[in-house]
Amino acid sequence: MSKSSVALRNLRGFVILLVVAFHSVLAYLGSQPHTSPSFDSPPYRWIAFPILDSERWFGFDLFCAFHYVYLMHFMFFLSGLFVWSSLQRKGMRKFLSDRFLRLGLPFLIGVYLLMPVAHYPVYRVSAVDPSWTAFWSHWIALPFWPSGPLWFLWELLALNIIAAGLFSFAPHYGEFLGRLSANAGDRPGRYFAGLVAISGLAYVPLASIFRPWEWVQVGPFAMQPSFALPYAIYFFAGLGVGVFGVERGLLASTARLARRWPLWVAGALGAFVLWTLPTALIVQGWAPSVPGLEVLADIGLVLSCATTSLALAAVFVRFATEPWPRFSSFSDNAYGIYLLHYVFVIWLQYLLLGVPMFPIAKAAIVFTGTFLLSWGGAAAVCRVPFGARVIGVDRRILVRAR
Q1: Cβ count near 346 (within 10 Å)
Q2: CB 35: neighbour CB atoms within 10 A?
Q3: What is the pTM assigned to this prediction?
Q4: SS3 call for 223
Q5: Rg (alpha carbons) of the chain, rounded to whole number
Q6: What's the structural domain count of the chain?
Q7: DSSP letter string, 39-78
Q8: Could you tell me which of 199, 176, 195 has the C-alpha nearest to residue 187?
Q9: For the chain, is the Cβ count within 10 Å smaller at the N or the C terminus?
């Protein structure tokens, strides 16, 4: 297996760790109200913040703000890396069949079976009748079906369908995207500038209508309108980078991106500050009196997203090119962990309500418990042949570059 393939395998697991950590600390953000929102009344704030604990720490706000800006964009980027090779190997029909099995089926099972179980504690926090029967009557009376973090699956499936359609009707589009990123290994700065320009043209107009934290939900399908196009751009950017193999170009372990990782890390921190400062002023109500403040925040978000994504990739292709024996099982079960973790996060946060304990300790318990339980659950599912086929790692992808 090539060094880049090993680095991406390690990175895959690390990104899921970040997702679990992000959700584990949401109950302890200092910026959130001190009273739990009503389960039945708009705007249904519990969708984003299911449990609110009285113990808070502002450091978690900074942690979540930093990862909120780039993390999902980066996951779409990683998800696109092996799409073109899969389409070439399988053809459109087999590719779509596999995508519906690995994305569509887990989405349906997760949304309609796991999400009610995950959100039951949210109802119990303020319920007069905490029984499951009462919860279910309130649940089905909601004007939508909460999907939690599983919204990522349906959007990723939609992008895979688009990619497959283009493969059928415009079979050379992959090579075109590959040529656009072919020199990224030698000139990552130029690639970064193009990514920022294209995603900025897509995001800034949408951000003038929708805030980056706004959601739209129809039935079980949730999406962030301001990020819909940028997510697609990052997905197809990943597809382009992967066309000629991840061991070449931008993600090569010897490319300039990896060699200059300190510059990208410093740039990521600077870009985050560029987004954070105007955003904080906007939240405090300064936008009407400071012309251009919202546009500055939008530009800062675009820069922060691209810089942090490339910085994280640079660090891993520079330093994580050897297998991590204790980490390999976790990486192999990363997808299953993503599917299961939200159930354990919410229940553990609920069980810790009222426990006199520092918020950092509570968050650590939630993170550790969720990590172990979801990892064990995913590994158990993968012991069943059909479960392994649906949520297990595709080893053909991992070994394609040697």
Answers
A1: 26
A2: 9
A3: 0.94
A4: strand
A5: 21
A6: 1
A7: SSSTT-GGGT-----S--BHHHHHHHHHHHHHHHHHHHHH
A8: 195
A9: C
Domain boundaries, position 343: 3-398
- E strand spans, 72-226: 216-218, 221-223
Query: How is residue 51 written in tokens?
Result: 């449990």
Q: And the tokens for 90? A: 């399988």
User: Structure tokens of 342?
Assistant: 């939200």
Question: What are 239's two structure tokens?
Answer: 């597809």
Single-letter residue type at 196: V
Which distant-in-sequence residues (6+ apart) come within 8 Å of 113 by Cβ?
none
Tokens of 234: 């990052």
* Per-residue pLDDT tens listing for the chain (402 residues): 678 888 899 999 999 999 999 999 999 999 988 888 889 988 899 999 999 999 999 999 999 999 999 999 999 999 999 999 999 999 999 999 999 999 999 999 999 999 999 999 999 998 989 999 999 999 999 999 999 999 999 999 999 999 999 999 998 888 899 988 888 888 999 999 999 999 999 999 999 888 888 899 999 999 999 999 999 999 999 999 999 888 888 998 888 999 999 999 999 999 999 999 998 888 888 877 787 889 999 999 999 999 999 999 999 999 988 887 777 778 889 999 999 999 999 999 999 998 999 999 999 999 999 999 999 999 999 999 988 889 887 654 444 444
333: its two tokens: 């079960």
**Who's near 306: CB < 8 A, 6+ residues apart?**
70, 192, 195, 196, 199, 271
